Amino acid sequence: MRIRPPTRAVGRGLRRALPATVALLLLTPVYACHVELPRPDAATTWPPDTARQWQWQWQLSGVLDPGVPADVFLLDPVATTAAQTAELRARDRRLICQVHVGSVRPTDPDATRFPVTVQGAPGRRPQSRWLDVRQWDTLRPVLADRFRLCRGKGFGAVAIADADAYAQRSGFPLDFDDQLHFNRRLAELARSLDLSPGLVNAVPQVAALAPDFDFAVNEECVRLGVCGKLLPFVEAGKPVFHVEYTGSTEDFCVTTVGYGFASIRKERTLDAWRQPCPAP
Question: Which of 28, 93, 10 is CA-nearest to residue 59?
Answer without folding.
Answer: 93
